[in-house]
Amino acid sequence: MPASPGRPGRPLSPSPGRGRSRAAPPSFTARGSRPAPELPSTHAALVCVALPGLVISDELGQLTGRGLDGYYRDGRRLLSRCQLRVAGREPLPLQARMTGADGVRFVGMLRMCQAARPDPDVVVERTRHADGTERITLRNAAPRALRLPVEVALGTDLAELGTIASGTAGPELPATVHDSGLRWAHAGFAACVTADPPPADSLASAGLLRWEVELPPGGTTSVELRVRPAGGGPLRAAGSAATSAPARAAGDDPRVAALLHAAVADLQALLVRDPAHPCDTYLAAGAPWRCGMAPAEALAAARMTLPLGTRLAAGTLRTLARTQLTGPGSQAGMIPGPRRDVGPLLPPGCTGTEATLLFPALLAEARRWGLPEQETRELLPTAERCLAWLRAAAGDGPYLPDPQPAGPVRCETQAHAWRAAQLGADLLDAYDRPGARELSEWAQALRTAFRTDFWIEDHGGGRPAAALAPDGRPLPHLGSHAVHLLDTGLLGSGRLAPGLLDKVQTEHLARLLGGPAMDAGWGLRGLGAKEPGHNPFGHRTGAVRVHETALAVAGLAATDHEKEVCGLLRGLLDAAEHFDHRLPEMFAGEQRTAGSAPVPHPAACRPAATAAASVILILTALAGIRPDAPAGTVTLRPVRSAPLGELGLTGLRVAGAPFAVRISRLGLAMVEEAADGLQLGV
Predict the structure, then answer these.
(1) In this model, does residue 112 exceed pLDDT 90?
(2) Which residue has the higher pLDDT, 8 or 245?
(3) Burial (0-12, 13-18, 19+ Cβ within 10 Å), 593
(4) Which residues, other chains included, contact 221 with Cβ-Cβ below 8 Å and sequence gap of 6+?
(5) C-alpha torsion sign, points 392, 397, 403, 404
(6) Which of 156, 222, 326, 645 could pair covalently with 137 via S-S, beta carbons 3.0-4.6 A apart?
(7) Domain enclosing residue 132, as ranges
(8) For 520-569, what is each residue's pLDDT tens digit?
(9) 213 and 350: one domain?
């Protein structure tokens, strides 16, 4: 079920358990799993987010109580119905437009006179915000004064979002008159709507608030509704506390500025405070389905947003450090996380494993970007326990096994483990902590074995296996999991950790990722079009996942495969235009043709943390920004072909200070703003 906004929730055990998996090979999954309820699509909905507040509307502007429509706070629907009638009629909708990540504006009209003329007599504007406020403004556009009765019909079921999504929400609750509005209560919870100015009449049995307004020609009047939990104050969204200047982009391609602006707004909207430690914030996975803590996604998103500053990374790391498993047992040192469905070709994966491996990698890279020394030392013991778990789980073998008994050895997991070992050893060595040498030696053994065991030779030059079956047989399907082999990590002096593949294997992988089987023309498919089981709408078997496409762009840029970079990058930018520059978590991987558009995925979150953070990763990868704050240097290695032409990035942060860089049309980089004393590395 969707998690409640703003609530980290109780961590799920990383031990094998039920997941929302589809049919899979009998050797990997059990029979008899019950199908999950169908989630209603929200692609066409206008979703305003300022967690823990959320409001979902359709383009007509009226909240009718059907589907997911309504105002939400902490995952509970406070108001499901808000229907406006002026002079007994609903306004004719003219326009619905998002004003930001947290607001939407609706414009409608009414004709009041009998004369046959096309002009409106009354213009109705409704502005709706995720903080629980709605302002209704009426403007008289007629040449005479108007006296208008205004009614707002309200109602709610006070249902949880998960209950609504499963189609089991109850009927509307009876209302009572409360202060200058209405109140509803059920099972110890209550919500209210108050109005300013107070209504002339309130009819609780029908959920009606009424006003009588008089408008001179050209005159306006407004009514503001405030939706709150009973006894609760105004919403205080974590994103509203952001004080640093937002990152901005400018250059030859005008789409980049709009895309970055939308991404930063979505990231701020998805910020959530740890209730027990309000100073620590992290990113919820996405709205409306996953508004709580998802450890692996939160760490991945925080890592991609390091160019915006290290505060989010620190808050995410501290929040998850408090969930780390301790005590005896094989799971000691893990960051708990639930199972994740990875499609029918493999059993569900363990996001706890991924989060545990991401923790030391994020801490090591955050230090390079400028995480203060005190905070790094504070989090170092948790990272050491993560790395100790890695070494214990791997044992004497070269690979990190699957936590599920008799599970496959996954390609993606080995890539995460390799990066954690490389960056973790670098981190331990920097603080003279024991274990760095053992980690490096194990990582080298992993690299040597991987290049042989996971590489499948074929007439096209070969490909990496998706996994090794329990009997050691490589599973050959080609999918976006392979992009993690290109995602290595940042070491000192602007160096990148070496990849698991050698140079020739990397070239073959780059060619495969840029080929028509993987590149849908809008981004990278989750599973190659020629692979058995390919489904353009499959969330792991063919849909384009924005995060993995961004990892591919960044990894290909770092390994100088600029032709493939240009293809994937331009496809994703073109797709973003069709989504009003607010990229969803994923969309269908149907092949692009002339005049076509990317097809939305019905279960995708929009906004989504990893999708929004991917924009930051892509743009900074094009600039090739590689800082080493402890050494006081930053290295720039931009993509030489400058696929977006001239590109300027401002509002970034390196070593705790503002940072700005400009890439010329010739692919040359120039620092325009930086911290005092920060030197340009070679």
Answers:
(1) no
(2) 245
(3) exposed
(4) 137, 138, 213, 215
(5) negative
(6) 222
(7) 53-236
(8) 999 999 999 999 999 999 999 999 999 999 999 999 999 999 999 999 99
(9) no
* Distance, CA of 651 to CA of 634 (rounded, Å): 16
Contact yes or no for 399/454 (Cβ under 8 A): no
Measured in degrees and rounded to the nearest 5, phi and psi for residue 377 equal -65, -35
232 vs 347, residue with greater confidence: 347
Q: Which two tokens stand for residue 622?
A: 């094009």
* Dist. CA 80–CA 69, nearest whole Å: 6
**Residue 162 belongs to some domain of the structure:** yes
Q: How many helices (H) and strands (E) does the chain have?
A: 12, 35
Same domain (yes/no): 332, 422: yes
- Quote the CA–CA distance of 539 and 547 in Å, as a whole number: 13
Q: pLDDT value at position 15?
A: 35
Question: Does residue 113 register a pLDDT over 70?
Answer: yes
Torsion of CA 426, 339, 474, 490, to 10 degrees: -20
656, with CB counted inside 10 A (0-12, 13-18, 19+), is: middle
Residue that the structure tokens 């995480």 belong to: 371
> What one-letter code names the amino acid at 267?
L
d(CA 614, CA 597): 21
The pLDDT value recorded for residue 236 is 83
Which of 192, 216, 236 is where one domain is finished? 236
Number of domains in the chain: 2
What would the mean pLDDT of 445-468 be, rounded to a whole number? Answer: 95
Contact 659, 674 (CB under 8 A): yes
| Beta partners for residue 633, in sequence order | 628, 679
User: Are the CB atoms for 45 and 58 separated by under 8 Å?
Assistant: yes
Q: How far apart are CA 574 and CA 591, in angstroms?
A: 13
In this model, does residue 143 exceed pLDDT 50? yes
* Residue whose structure tokens are 């290695």: 637
What whole-number distance in Å separates Cα of residue 661 and Cα of residue 255?
A: 18
The model's pLDDT over 622-655, given as tens digits with 9 standing for 90+, comes to: 999 999 999 999 999 999 999 999 999 999 999 9
What's residue 592's pLDDT? Answer: 96
Residues 327, 351: one domain? yes
Tokens of 653: 């942060």
- 651 and 247 in contact (C-beta within 8 Å)? yes
Q: Report the pLDDT value the prediction gives residue 506, as an integer from 0 to 100.
A: 97
What's the first-to-final CA gap in the chain, in angstroms? 50
Confidence of residue 29 (pLDDT cuts 50, 70, 90): very low
Same domain, 209 and 318: no
**434 and 525 assigned to the same domain:** yes
Q: How far apart, in whole angstroms, are the C-alpha atoms of residue 586 and residue 605? A: 8
Q: Are strands 679-680 and 633-636 parallel, antiparallel or unpaired?
A: parallel
Same domain, 212 and 340: no
